[in-house]
Design brief:
The chain has 440 residues and is of the alpha/beta class. It contains 20 helices and 13 strands. The protein has an eight-stranded mixed sheet with strand order 6-8-7-9-10-11-12-13, sandwiched between helices. A five-stranded parallel sheet has the order 2-3-4-1-5, sandwiched between helices. A hairpin with a 2-residue loop joins strand 9 and strand 10. Helix 9 crosses helix 16. The chain is globular, with a radius of gyration of 24 Å.
């Protein structure tokens, strides 16, 4: 996050942009990032948090708080007068302002062109802000666009100062890379924190996830709920999704595209056991682990939570959680492959998933070799790892795109004590090894 602050400080100090667009998922730290950058840049700014309210309320609040006289119903007059008072105007929750004033983008273009004020637009609506950034650039304005992403597993552990990388993986499994949520995990047990954050009708994340889905402003939330419920903790192709949800293919593809636009769902190529190397089929997954957890364990049991039956629900979650953590380890492996090949001087050319029975193996293709990253959760013994590596290597020998090529098998585990070298082409890597990597 520090590098993003430095970028924004430079923009504000040099005044190299007319409009700054900052967007990303809810709670990733967009507002704090902007405000900290402005403080470090030491520039005067006016901050306004837009909310879901009628336009006249928005204008009245500005008039009262800033001591201004504003033309009736004129957003343009309000923003012009705000800009005249400081060098930077920050409009947070810009998507709410768009709702009540659809022509607001034209107003922004107009007021920026008339003065020396930088306008900062902050929003969680990813596709809208990407479209608006392009429109503002086409109008001739200098636009600095910044998409703020959740932290990766490794970065989250460093931010929350966790030296226990298995504990970090548990926290990551619930809150993804959202620092604000991760810091809510107190010294209580992991499961006490889960109960506190999810398992009552007044819990923070129990309430916030439905609001996140509602912000998509879709016509049919039942379809979104159906897709996310099926995908939770899984990686599936369109055929499997269609079969499980009962949706026709065109409708399913439409909603998958919408969910991808909002950065909630993504896909990775499924590498076939035969034929060409390039991934042929798309495997979809929920990108946000908060949504994964919610749709796997909370959404199907909303009635139980509303009735206060949280102890019974928690017991069932605990019993199944090793299965879910196996999925989380696969997600961490996707991040590991990019970091691991880079620090060793390789160039990652392609990335996919090789499915071997019930194993999800992340495969990275570099200019020199093929890298197989196999996540393995739970109690790990050398005998178990040797057996798994043997199965993988037997299949490598029978696979046309890997046969005869140099390869390595990296088994990613939670923790392990003992010799980590498994044969000539395989070895064990722990979460602690990954957490302590010196990644540029």
């Amino acid at each position: 996050m520090e590098n993003l602050i430095e970028e924004l400080v430079n923009v504000f100090k040099s005044r190299s942009a007319d409009v700054v667009v900052v967007y990303g998922k809810p709670r990733v730290g967009k507002t704090s990032l902007v405000l900290e950058s402005l403080r470090r840049a030491n520039v005067d700014f006016t901050y306004y948090a837009c909310t879901e309210e009628p336009l006249e309320f928005f204008l009245d609040k500005i008039a009262v708080r800033q001591g201004l006289t504003i033309e009736a119903g004129s957003v343009r007059d309000a923003l012009l007068k705000l800009c005249s008072r400081s060098r930077v105007l920050v409009l947070d929750g810009f998507n709410f302002l768009v709702k009540v004033s659809p022509s607001i983008l034209g107003v922004v273009q107009d007021i920026v062109g008339q003065g020396d004020c930088i306008v900062v637009l902050i929003s969680s609506n990813i596709p809208m802000m990407e479209e608006y950034s392009e429109q503002l650039e086409r109008s001739g304005l200098r636009v600095y666009s910044l998409r703020v992403e959740p932290l990766k597993y490794r970065d989250l552990g460093q931010i929350i100062n966790s030296m226990d990388w298995v504990k970090t993986a548990y926290i990551y499994s619930v809150v993804d890379g959202i620092v604000e949520y991760a810091k809510l995990f107190t010294s209580d047990s992991f499961w006490d924190n889960v109960k506190k954050l999810f398992l009552s009708k007044n819990s923070l994340l129990y309430r916030e996830v439905p609001l996140m889905i509602k912000s998509l402003e879709l016509k049919d939330y039942s379809i979104v709920n159906a897709i996310l419920s099926v995908l939770a903790g899984r990686v599936l192709g369109v055929h499997e999704l269609q079969k499980t949800t009962g949706l026709e293919k065109s409708r399913l593809n439409k909603y998958l595209a919408i969910l991808r636009e909002h950065d909630l769902v993504d896909y990775i190529g499924a590498i076939p056991s035969k034929g060409r190397v390039k991934p042929k089929h798309r495997l979809f997954y929920i990108k946000d682990l908060i949504l994964n957890f919610y749709y796997k364990y909370i959404f199907p049991h909303i009635s139980d939570i509303e009735l206060g039956l949280r102890d019974e629900l928690l017991k069932s979650i605990v019993e199944d959680y090793d299965n879910y953590m196996s999925y989380v380890m696969y997600r961490i492996a996707l991040q590991l492959v990019e970091d691991h090949v880079r620090i060793r001087g390789y160039t990652l050319e392609d990335l996919g998933v090789y499915i071997l029975d019930d194993r999800y193996i992340v495969v990275g293709f570099t200019n020199n070799k093929i890298h197989f990253y196999y996540p393995l959760w739970g109690h790990v013994t050398r005998k178990l790892v040797e057996k798994e590596v043997s199965v993988i290597e037997e299949n490598i020998a029978e696979t046309s795109w890997a046969r005869g090529r140099e390869y390595e098998v990296i088994v990613l585990v939670g923790s392990y004590r003992g010799d980590k070298i498994i044969g000539s082409n395989a070895y064990i890597l722990t979460l602690e090894d990954y957490g302590n990597m010196q990644v540029a």
